[in-house]
Design a protein that fits this description.
6-stranded antiparallel sheet; globular; 5-stranded antiparallel sheet; mainly beta
Length: about 200
């Protein structure tokens, strides 16, 4: 019980920091230059960096987000799955739940070749039964990060953090590409609204 209470307190403090400062110290919102879907859905990148997916709704889909990150050290990437009145059942999936089967990223330095980023671990503020966020590091149609918590409770903002095996130095002008794969055996389990 004490651990659960301290976790809730930690989450509350981070949420307060995000509301007051627009960010959590040590974290930067990644503002996409482009965002595309393999399945042909429409993608809208909002000024605050959030990505809203609509239109064509394939049973499975992969999203590719391209960002010019700030220079500095990159140790982890946070994925926020967001709710919206524009989504069926408020999201954060296009039909409430989603299953992220793979989280991938590569970094291309200026005048360099892309380097695949390797992740050592992942944590989330909520995992659905066996659909734990750590399984998104080992792609499989049987696994992935899911957030179903019943018809009422699923519509909540959720967060996952993917930690690099080794922090990398990001040079000014580098390009970060993040790929979110939704290749679950469960149809229609794709993100609808998210931010990195």
């Amino acid at each position: 019980v004490e651990l659960a209470e301290s976790r809730q307190e930690w989450i509350r403090r981070r949420q307060d920091e995000l509301k007051e400062q627009g960010r959590i110290p040590g974290w930067s919102i990644l503002h996409p230059e482009t965002a595309t879907t393999a399945g042909g859905a429409a993608v809208h990148v909002e000024p605050g960096g959030a990505v809203f997916v609509s239109g064509t709704f394939p049973k499975r889909d992969d999203y590719t987000v391209t960002v010019k990150p700030e220079a500095g050290t990159l140790a982890a990437i946070q994925l926020e799955a967001l709710t919206s009145s524009g989504l069926k059942y408020q999201g954060p999936g296009r039909k409430a739940n989603f299953v992220l089967t793979s989280f991938e990223a590569s970094l291309t330095p200026p005048d360099g070749e892309p380097v695949k980023l390797m992740f050592s671990r992942a944590v989330a503020d909520f995992n659905q039964d066996q659909l734990d966020v750590t399984t998104a590091l080992n792609p499989s149609a049987e696994q992935g990060w899911g957030i179903w918590e019943g018809e009422i409770n699923t519509a909540q903002d959720r967060r996952a953090v993917f930690y690099l095996e080794t922090p990398v130095d990001v040079a000014a002008g580098s390009t970060l590409v993040v790929v979110l794969r939704h290749q679950s055996k469960h149809d229609d389990h794709v993100l609808g609204y998210f931010r990195l």
